[in-house]
Amino acid sequence: MDFLKEQEKIIQNVLTKLGYEIEEVTIEGNNRKDLGEFQYNGMMSLAKKYHQNPIEMATKVAEELQKEPSFEKVTVAGPGFLNITFSIQSLIEKIEEIRKSKEYLSPLPKKKIVIDYGGPNVAKVLHVGHLRSANIGESLKRLAKALGYEVIADIHLGDYGLQMGMIMLEIQTRYPNLSCFQENFHEEFVKDLPITNDDLIDLYPIASSKAKEQEEIMNQAREITYKLQQNHPGYKALWRSIMEISLKDMKEIYQLLSVSFDLWKGESDAETFIPEMIEDLRKKGLVTQSEGAEIIEVAEKEDKIAVPPLLLIKSNKTVSYETTDLATIWDRMKNLHPDEIWYVTDKRQELHFTQVFRAAKKAKIVNDQTKLEFIGFGTMNGNDGKPFKTREGGIMTLRNLIALVKEAVEKKIIPSITGKEREELASTIAIGTIKFADLLSQRSTDYIFDIEKFSDTSGKTGPFILYSTIRMRSLLKKAKEMGIENPKMTQLKNNGDKKVLIQTLTLRKTLENALKQKSLHEIANFLYLLNNTYNNFYAENRILTESDKNVRESWVALTEYVYEINQLLLNILAIEIPTRM
User: Fold this and answer.
1) Are the C-beta atoms of residues 143 and 516 closer than 8 Å to each other?
2) DSSP H or E segment with residue 52
């Protein structure tokens, strides 16, 4: 149990002793630090329940708490607020207990989670629109694992829809003599395919534009899509070859971002399950005909907006995006047996997932206990408030974004470093800059990515956190050279050092709330507040030249503790710490 939970339990026991029943006590950080470090605001509701004066009740509780060694001072303010200051010695003892065990986080009850957080389309460039799903999904995965959950991450590629038919048609138009377009073709891959990943990226917008402008071309693309879904040997081989080319580049970019997946599945992997699922849906009487298509009604009486039916099979007999998502849930429930499935995607897809989730529940593809959760996010915008683009107005690829931030980092943060090290440091710092800015922003809102602002080493930025962390590491190295090894915290001066300890106390509560709300900005904000508090302490005290040996060693131990928390949280945010800045 962490320190705050222990103190909350003490308050609960005191309330029980005084005859007040309460299920849970929660203490919060106090905005008025001059009155107390923490505050308990529950006395007013208890007073209402027991028809008593809240100030008199709070005074009795304060008197009892003053008898506890961990409470240095407890006062009553306003209509019954309890302002609490903890003893510095009780904090030291608890922190030393944590440091000795290295158990910064005790696990939550076991759960198995599947997180779907990639979703890029094969043969299309990874751009800024893919950034947030990668960052948020990866951090949620790491957070859930840190708190004891079993997590399976699936990229869920867009690899089977109409866009693939369009690309294949364009390839067929340009290279009609390829082996895969000939009769009696039965190879697994197309060995004579003269196409690179850059070619694929150029092909899609051309193919899409042609299909949208000419109905005949669109129909041909739909026909190819249908044949692909029916396992036509040539198109299937071409599909495998396109996948091989596209995934190589995709994996390189995700690796740059420190994003990884346990499963590299896509819409195509749902193919195996679609026939049995559709048969099951029909047997249950959930499928109806509509203008040559097959649908499932998912609207409910309580709906405040119209929820259209889920399109199961299109009139041209191809399956829809909704169908492959539904079959993917079928697959996950049958083979992975998760307690929850999280979908991290653009908030504009909420209606789509409402349809899919309702169909899954209605068809009992998931049981009543299984939670399906849509985790929507806003867009990353430029200084003009519009989706982030290149100076020419084109789409901003992830590679281009990283290059732009690297350029700013090289000029502002590492101007004197040269050679291979400069390239490596610039890349690490740039990606940390991008990721921290992205995760600091409220998940569900749009935000402006200002390169100049976010690449600064002061303020709420990635470089500020990274520089602070590196400075701690440097101090610890110097302390070791001075013979201070395995330092213990025994004595503090209450000269900024206690403020640092107080700041660390909300670590577990912050992480649990971040997991509950799926809000990584709470972790990013915690990191900023902790490092800002530590840096103020660092500026006010000469840690390694402090005359009192016990205090000096305690300050080194405090630095080590904050450094380890930084490592833990930066790892959860999938941000790498550079060797120097």
Assistant:
1) no
2) none
Of the candidates 136, 119, 124, 27, the one whose C-alpha atom is nearest the C-alpha of residue 378 is: 136
CA-based angle 205:211:212, to the nearest 5? 90
Q: How far apart are CA 114 and CA 265, in angstroms?
A: 13
d(CA 382, CA 534): 32
Strands 380-381 and 371-377: what pairing? unpaired
Strands (E), 251-351: 288-290, 293-296, 310-313, 340-346
Question: Which pair of structure tokens corresponds to residue 319?
Answer: 């399956």
Q: Under a CB-based contact definition with an 8 Å cutoff, are residues 373 and 367 in contact?
A: no
Query: To 10 degrees, what angle do helices 3-17 and 507-517 make?
Result: 90
Is residue 152 within 8 Å of residue 112, measured between CB atoms?
yes
- The alpha carbon of 47 is separated from its chain's Cα centroid by a whole number of angstroms, namely 41
Residues 202-251 pLDDT 10s: 998 999 999 999 999 999 999 999 999 899 999 999 999 999 999 999 99
pTM of the model: 0.93
Residue 506: is it exposed, middle or buried by C-beta count within 10 angstroms (0-12/13-18/19+)? buried
Query: Could you tell me which of 316, 324, 400, 315 has the C-alpha nearest to residue 356?
Result: 324
Question: Do the beta carbons of residue 99 and residue 490 sit within 8 Å?
Answer: no
Domains of the chain in start order, with CATH, are: 3-86 (3.30.1360.70), 112-120+129-158+260-377 (3.40.50.620), 162-256 (no CATH), 398-572 (1.10.730.10)
Mapped onto helix, strand or coil, the DSSP state of residue 121 is strand
The SS3 call for residue 113 is strand
* 107 φ, ψ (degrees, to nearest 5): -70, 150
Write out the two tokens for 454.
């976010």
- Residue 119's nearest CA partner among 348, 278, 334, 312 is 348
For the chain, the distance separating the N- and C-terminal CA atoms, rounded to the nearest angstrom, is 37
Residue 41 CA, distance from chain mean position: 31
pLDDT tens, 71-83?
999 999 999 999 9
